[in-house]
Each structure stands twice: as C-alpha cells, then as structure tokens.
Amino acid sequence: MGSWAYPNTIERVRRLESLMDVPVRAEGAEELLQDLIGDDSLLDNIHLASQKNPDADVRPAIASTLEEWTRWYSVEQFMDPWEQGTRDRVRELATSFADADYAGLFPKPLNPDTPDAAVAIVQNILGDDPDRPVADYDKVRRIMPGVYAVVDPDEGTLFRVETARNLAIPAHEDVEADLKAELFGVAPSLRH
Predict the structure, then answer these.
(1) Where do the structural domains in the chain lie, given as residue ranges?
(2) Residue 71: burial class (beta carbons within 10 Å; 0-12, 13-18, 19+)
(3) What is the pLDDT of residue 37?
(4) Rounded to 10 degrees, what is the CA torsion of 8, 11, 14, 20?
(5) Contacts of residue 31, Cβ cutoff 8 Å, sequence gap at least 6
(6) How confident is the model at residue 22 (pLDDT cuts 50, 70, 90)?
(7) pTM of the entire structure?
(8) 130 vs 82, higher pLDDT
(9) Which segments of 91-181 are extended strands (E)?
(10) Cβ-based neighbour number of residue 91 at 10 Å
C-alpha cells in the first residue's frame, strides 16, 4: 500500500467530511488532501483528472480510495491505529458517493464501467478462458463508480476490480470472508 496519510483521527475525519461537502477541483486537490489522504494511486488519478479537466470534481476518486481502505484492508495493515469510530465514519462518507459519476475523470478509461468488463479483467489475471461465459461469474457487484467485487467461481477468491485502471486485487485474507458475507449475503462456497 503506497499510502502515508489517512483520516485515522476524529479531527482529520471532521476535516475530510467538510472537504467532501463541496466539489473538490482536480487542480489543487493534492494540496487540500496532503495530510488527510496521502496515497500514490489517488494522487495519480487526481493528476490524470486535472490533465483532462482542471475543474473536474474528484470526490468520486477520493471516495473510491476511502472505500478501499475501510472495506478491503484490515486495521493491522496501517502503520498507525484508527481512533474509535473513525473507520466507520470514513466508510460511511465513502459509500455516500457509491452512485457518483466517475465517468469523465480520466482521459481514457481502459475499460467501461460494466460488470462484464470487471469479469474480463479477472479472467485475464487468472488466465481463464476468455470465451468462458460471463454468467459463470455469478458473484459480481458494483460497489463504487468503476469498482466491482468479483468472486472467482473456481477458487472462491474475492477481487476488488477497478475497470478504468484495468486493475484487480484479491481481498486481504483478514477481511475476505466478512466482505463476501457483506457484499453477497453469505460467503460464496467454492465450486467443484
């Protein structure tokens, strides 16, 4: 995780909540976020967005990073502890942008924001047959703009897929079972 600052204190969460109340322009966003959310991938996304449109509202990109941190990583993966209640507040803030428009932030997304694109990314990473029916992947859920949860139907591995960046990362083992239960109702069983 290329991250060095995150909203793990009540004071930082309050500042972040205030910041996210209004559009955050791509140009200048790095300075606004520097001590709240320091993350290489997020800053790369903001830089790309600012090249396309300096006035673009980058709150969906910020929310995507926050969702990843609070849902897909265990607390042990962070250098400093989260104060009580901060992760829940940050996660609630992130998910409030679940229906935001992510389209148009990047100069040219690598894939469309669709479940089929998310499945194709996982198939490619797994070396799965590209002609395999998408319907075989029956555990797919859009969780944020351009972000999907996809379960490999053979091994049961849960992936977080970012379609615009052509990226799929398996869930950390400490959170995978809980995420499957949360996102799909029950932990999906392995297919045999």
Answers:
(1) 3-95, 115-184
(2) buried
(3) 94
(4) -60
(5) none
(6) very high
(7) 0.86
(8) 82
(9) 140-144, 147-151, 158-162, 167-170
(10) 15
